[in-house]
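task queued by scheduler; priority normal; single chain, no ligands, no partner chains; default sampling; output format set to C-alpha cells
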Amino acid sequence: MSDQVRELLRRAAEDAGRPVISTEAVYAKAARVRWRRRAGVSAGAVCTVALGAFVVPQLASPEARAPQTSSVAAPAEPSGTGRAARLTRLLPSGVGSVEEVSFADIIKHASPLPPEPPRTGPLDGQYAVRKDGGVGYLTVDVRDAKAVGRKLGGSPRVKDLCKVANGEPARTDCVREELSDGRVLTVWSDAMDYGDGTPQWGPELAARLVLADGSELSVRDSTGFEADIVQGPLLKTPPLTRAQLRELVLRPELLPKA
C-alpha cells in the first residue's frame, strides 16, 4: 500500500461520521472545496474525503465509480400534516413531488443521523423536489435577529448582496428590492461553477429576505447535485422560476408567528 493511499485512509477515518448539521454548513463546505481547483489526482482525492464522500472502495472496484441512486429520505410524516405537505400547499401546481430530506444523510451519509438542528421558522428544512426523473432541492432557513447579528459581527446595516467584495463570486441577475414595510428582498442566480469538488451543485436561484426587525429568511432553489451517490440526476431548471421563488419567500407561512 502506497504512502498516498495510507494518508487518504487516515483522513477518511478521522472524518467518518462527522455530521452535517445545517444547510449553510453543507453549501459553505462544498463552496470552499470548489474554490480550490485540483492540482492533480491526489489533491482531488483529498477534497473528496474532506467532504465525507467515501471513495476508497473505488480503488478496488471499477463499478463503484459509476454514480449510484439512493432512495433514502427523511422519516415519513403523517399525510397532510408534515412540513413537506405544508410547503407543497404553498407551491404552484406542477412543481413536482416534495419530500423532506436530510443533507447529513444524502450527502454526508452520516450514520447514525445527528440530532435535528434547531428550527426558527415553521418550515425550515431541506426538501427534495422530484420531477421528470430528476431531483432538485429547496432549502428554507430562518434566522432571528441575534443570529444574523452574530453572523455580521454585530453590524445592524443591511448588506447590499448585489455588491460583492473581498473576492466573493458575482451574483448574476441580482435584483434588490426595498419593500414598503422596511423589508429588503434580494434574488439572484448562481451557476455554482466554482471548480472541482464533491458534491458538485448544479445551477440555482437564491433569495434572501431581511425583515425590519433584523431577522432573515433564506431560500435556495437548486437543480440538484452530482456525487457518487445521488437521489437522481439534476433538474434542467430550478424547481421554481424566479417569479415563483419571489412569491414563496414573501409568504408569511415561512416565518414564525408573532
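post-processing summary
- The longest helix spans residues 3-15.
- Confidence is low (pLDDT under 50) at residues 15-21, 31-66, 71-79.
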